[in-house]
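Re: [ENG-882] Designed sequences occasionally contain unexpected residues at chain ends

Forwarding the minimal case from QA. Structure tokens:
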């Protein structure tokens, strides 16, 4: 699901602003950008996001101002980066690296100690508290946007499920008529043989019964109805349901494929085509569900 949230918090001379963007993704894919942060703060951010979101490609951008914004340049790392980049540029007959490229290399620029931290952990703790408070505010705003989108998606999914329920009802009616149609077609085809070879109606009825049993889709229709009922219940429930809906969509498709393979009536085949079209629209939307 898509959404955006922003939080800004000032605490202990630290101003933290956090932007959270989320776009559709099958799983949770988290990327952290912006200020270089201690590993403990990055881990805390990741844990907070995973606790709030279940799916989506999520980008978290953190910006700091005040005493926590101090940066430290690792000159040894800068020299190593400059040397390696210079050697590569020489091999490729390209101009040497500029300062911006060197500073952009991992490990060259890191977060420095807060200017007035006094060498203790108070500065880091204040920074973490500000960042997480801003993150919470951003996640709350993001959640409101996703809730709005979720309501619209739920309405769309309900429409698609209604189409599938109607298709299932149509298929059930056609499937109930299939044995009679099969018997009629078979009688017409073998009428000449009956006259010439003396095949009895009882024998034809036996063959019709065998064919009808092979084409019976009662079990598939029962399972299909169950899957559709479960999908409706999930849409009406709270909490993350996207992955369970993914599974149900696969199972609905499996039942439709089996019914289409077993059915002998052309009308059922036509109904299956329409049901699959509705299912594909449902599948596309389910990918956007949390």
């Amino acid at each position: 699901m898509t959404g955006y949230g922003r939080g800004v918090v000032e605490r202990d001379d630290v101003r933290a602003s956090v932007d959270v963007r989320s776009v559709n993704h099958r799983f949770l894919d988290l990327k952290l950008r912006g200020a270089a942060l201690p590993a403990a703060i990055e881990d805390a951010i990741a844990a907070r996001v995973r606790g709030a979101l279940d799916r989506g490609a999520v980008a978290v951008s953190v910006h700091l101002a005040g005493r926590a914004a101090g940066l430290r340049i690792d000159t040894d790392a800068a020299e190593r980066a400059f040397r390696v980049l210079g050697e590569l540029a020489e091999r490729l007959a390209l101009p040497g690296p500029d300062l911006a490229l060197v500073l952009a290399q991992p490990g060259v620029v890191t977060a420095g100690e807060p200017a007035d931290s006094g060498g203790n952990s108070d500065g880091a703790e204040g920074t973490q508290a500000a960042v997480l408070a801003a993150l919470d505010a951003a996640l709350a705003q993001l959640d409101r946007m996703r809730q709005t989108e979720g309501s619209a998606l739920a309405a769309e999914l309900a429409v698609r499920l209604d189409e599938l329920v109607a298709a299932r009802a149509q298929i059930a009616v056609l499937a109930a008529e299939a044995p009679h149609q099969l018997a009629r077609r078979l009688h017409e085809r073998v009428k000449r043989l009956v006259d010439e070879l003396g095949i009895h109606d009882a024998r034809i009825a036996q063959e019709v019964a065998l064919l009808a049993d092979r084409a019976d889709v009662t079990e598939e229709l029962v399972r299909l109805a169950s899957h559709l009922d479960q999908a409706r219940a999930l849409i009406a429930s709270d909490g993350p349901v996207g992955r369970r809906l993914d599974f149900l969509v696969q199972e609905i498709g499996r039942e439709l494929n089996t019914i289409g393979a077993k059915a002998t009536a052309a009308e059922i085949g036509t109904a299956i085509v329409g049901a699959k079209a509705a299912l594909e629209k449902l599948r596309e939307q389910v990918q956007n569900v949390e």
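QA comment: On inspection the terminal residues look reasonable. Strands lie at 3-11, 14-23, 28-34, 56-66, 71-73, 109-111. Proposing we downgrade this to a documentation issue.
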